[in-house]
Every structure is written in structure tokens, then in C-alpha cells.
Amino acid sequence: MADRDRPLLLSLFEMATPGHLAHGLWTHPNDQRHRVDDLGFWRELGELLEYGTFDQLFLADVLGTYDVFADGLDTAVREAFQVPALDPLIVLGALADVTDHLGLVATFSTTYEPPFPFARRLATLDALSRGRIGWNIVTSYLKNAAENFGLDEQIEHDERYAIADEYLEVLYRLLLGSWDDGAVMLDRERRVFTDPAKVHYIDHRGPRFAVKGPHLVAPTPQRLPVLFQAGTSLRGLSFAARHAEVVFVGGWTADEVRENVRAVRQQAGEYGRRADRIAFVTSVDVVVGRTADEAAAKASEYDRHRTPREVLAQPRRMPELDRYDPGELVEDIIKRKDHGYRMLIRGWRPGQTVRDLQSKPVPRRSGPSDFRIVGGPEEVATALERVAARAEIDGFNLSQNVSFDSLRDFVELVVPVLRRRGLVRESYRAGETLRERIFPAAASPYPDPTHPGSAHRRPS
Ligand SMILES: Cc1cc2nc3c(=O)[nH]c(=O)nc-3n(C[C@H](O)[C@H](O)[C@H](O)COP(=O)(O)O)c2cc1C
After folding, report:
1. 248 CB under 6 A from ligand 1?
2. Interval 217-228: pLDDT, tens
3. How far is the CA of 384 from the centre of ligand 1 (A)?
4. For residue 397, what are the contacts with CB-CB under 8 A and spacing of at least 6?
């Protein structure tokens, strides 16, 4: 086993849509994503992931369409740019039945739907999957999502995180504080199904939510599913430091990712949390072949199917800039090391104003990156091992170019090498919850005692 205290986490980064991140690859003859509305697709995906002992499947989600391109809605619809898209929570329910060990993680937004019914859905999935559920917390960045919930404009960025903080508070109270462990008695003789003394109202009255309770679902294996989050803004990173157990950490290079990892760890420490009870996972795009040449040929074949970057150019969204005068020069903000300047250091041009940065459509960034790896099996394994060490991360969120070819290639060519090097697990532990898999040293299905949620659990 390499000098790691736990195996590298392997996560598949997907969305229940034909066009998640590899835009245009649905045109590839082998791609199966047009079948996302077919249970068979998910059964096959689940089987392949468990064959490769992947730790989890993560389903991203948005609550609106990207009507942000040059011709508004048309490009997104024509290109299947994250539309059509199924409800990931329902897909997880189906996957809970056709898989035995796979962690099942999905995105859900804290900005629009109330916490009480969501707590029930999350607990239902945790019960039916025997403790394999994770929740990626988002606040939703699409204007069209706001319009789908009766708003003309988006709620301000940092206010969305203030809503999210209170939302989590309500979820902690419902999932951890409303029922005591062991509340369910199933005592047929004394005709007591649940001990009433162990079920409580939560009486939450906050600035945004009022929830009386009690929660409707009895304690589930994890009680609180594993919390994931992927903030990049200052407010997003501080939210992660307070609540997240797994952070989907971004950055263009391993060094940048390491900076973000250390920043969140440090802030979590300031919130009194055990920093080693937070895991960091970064996204990676791998094209592997039996030889480096085969991989290179595959990569250029995929590129031929990709939607041209210009077609998908859209304005860069930087909430940190909302506080500045649109006419202000970006270089002056950087010189002053003012709020959000770190986000601006990459990619600004002399004379550029805030207005330019916020309004001009820019193509998605591409080109060489530590997280786009093309090569033979040993090469790819070495690159992943090097990046993981340098970025101080605990695992990878693999996104597929062609589904299921990219995953099958990774499982058949890279996983055996990673196993041989002792970097990933060889098998699953029966009955293990997702939290126990991610934090083996903690050996508990429940959140760490230093996690803010644990303050709501009643001593049993
Ligand atoms: C790996 C990864 C997965 C993400 N998945 C989603 C998602 O499913 N839905 C969503 O609305 N945003 C998603 N995001 C965006 C983040 O939630 C967040 O909005 C973005 O990183 C901007 O950060 P901020 O919220 O701190 O401004 C994801 C980001 C990353 C890096």
C-alpha cells in the first residue's frame, strides 16, 4: 500500500443528461448517454462501477437551462447542453436497488425548495440504500433556475449562502435532533412501535425558515448523508469549511488545488472542526489506451466530436465583482489585493474593466492541465499518483468523454495498475456506509463529533 492512510477515492462525475461536460460527445457512435431515461443504462453503469470498485457515482444537477449563449435557449437545446435532464434523486433511488456497495451522491439546491420535504427524501434514500447516500450542496447559479421558482432575478450570491447556512441548520435538527437513536421499539406486546419520549419537535424559527417538526423518517444508517460541496468563491469556500465533509476542490494546476485544500482545512480548523475529517476530491479527464499512441488517437477522435468552444462561449460569472463599479479596472483591484483579487489573477488583460469581465462571452478554458491526462495505463496511473500527492487530495472525480467507453477503459486499463500499486481498494466491505468508506479511521457512520451537525444529536 502506497504511503496513504486510505485508498484514493474513485468517483464518477456524471449527470442524468446526454450533455454534461463533454459537450458534443453524444454525437460519438459509441456514446450511450441518449439512454439516460432507460433504467438499463443505469443498471449497466452501476455494474461497471462496482466491477471497478469505484467508491461512488456523483450526479450533478441544475434547475434551469443555460439560455446564456449567443442565441439564447436554442444552443443549449440543440447541443443537449445539460438538457434534457432527469431528477438525480429519483435516479439514485433506482440505483439503490441495482447496486450493493456503490456510494450514491447527488446535487440538490438549498435556494428554492423548502428543507422539510427534502430532509425526508434524503432520509428515504439513505434508508433504502442502507447508508450509501451523499448530498452535493449547491445554491444554484443559473438565472433561469430563479425564473422557474417565481423570481425575476437571482438572489444575490452571498445571500444564497446565508440561506444555505440556515437550510443546513434545519436539516441537522431534523435528521440528527428530532429522533433519538433507538427510538423505534417495534414492541408488539406493549404495542409501542416508536417510543414517544424519543421523538421531538424541532421548533426551528429562523430569519428564513420556520419548521416545527418532528421529522417523519426514523433514524437511518448514516442519519445525515455525507455532505459534499464545491464552492470556489470566498463565501463558497467558507461554507465548505463549516459544513462539507467532502469538498470537490477546483484549480487549474495541482499547486492551485493544494492552495484551496489548505485554505479550507485551515478555515475548518478555525471553526473547531478536525481538518482530517474533510476529504478533497478533484475532477479529472482521462483518455487511456493500451498504448500512448492509441490514447492520443482516441483523444483526437473525441475532439472531432466536441462542440466548438466558441459556440459555448458565455460570460464569466464572478460574484466577487458584484460589489465593484462596472467601470473599475481589474488591474486596480489586483494591485489593491481587494476582495476576490485571487480569482482575477488568472486571465485578466491590461485595460480590462469589471464590465468587460462580467459581460463579454469567453470560451471555456482548455489546453494542457494537470487534470487532463492522455496516455497508456502506467502513464495515467503515475500522473494520478503524482497529482494526488502534489495537490494533497484524497481522490478523483472522473468525467467520461464517451459513455461507457471512457469508464470501461479506465476500469480495465488503469484500475488494475492502481490496485497493484496499492492506491485504490481491491474490494468493498459488506454493509459499509459511504461515510465509513470515506473516513475509515473514524469508523463511524455518523458525522464527526466536531462537525456542526453533531451538536444536534441527543446523547443516547
Ligand atoms: C466538481 C463540481 C461539481 C459541481 N456540481 C454542481 C452541480 O451539480 N450543480 C450546480 O448548480 N453547481 C455545481 N457546481 C458549481 C458549484 O456548486 C459552485 O456554484 C461553483 O463552484 C461556484 O462557486 P461559488 O458558489 O462559491 O461561487 C459544481 C462545481 C464543481 C467544481
Report:
1. yes
2. 999 999 999 999
3. 23
4. 11, 12, 13, 58, 248, 281, 282, 283, 284
Ligand 1 atom closest to the CA of 319, numbered from 1 = 27
State the distance from the centre of ligand 1 to the C-alpha of 60, rounded, in angstroms.
9
The CATH topology of domain 9-309+371-451 is TIM Barrel (3.20.20)
Tell me, in angstroms, the distance from the centre of ligand 1 to residue 230's CA. Answer: 5
Strands 184-187 and 192-194: antiparallel
User: Judging by DSSP bridges, how do beta strands 9-15 and 395-399 pair with one another?
Assistant: parallel
- Cα 138 to ligand 1 centroid, rounded to whole Å: 6
Q: What is the mean pLDDT of residues 64-82?
A: 91
Domain ranges of the chain: 9-309+371-451, 316-361
The tens digit of pLDDT for each residue in 402-431 reads 999 999 999 999 999 999 999 999 999 999
Look at 8 and 348; give whichever has higher pLDDT: 8
Residue 60: is its pLDDT beyond 60? Answer: yes
Of 66, 135, 141, the one to substitute when testing ligand 1's pocket (max ligand atoms within 8 A of C-beta) is: 141
Q: Which residues, listed in sequence order, are joined to residue 135 by a DSSP beta bridge?
A: 106, 227
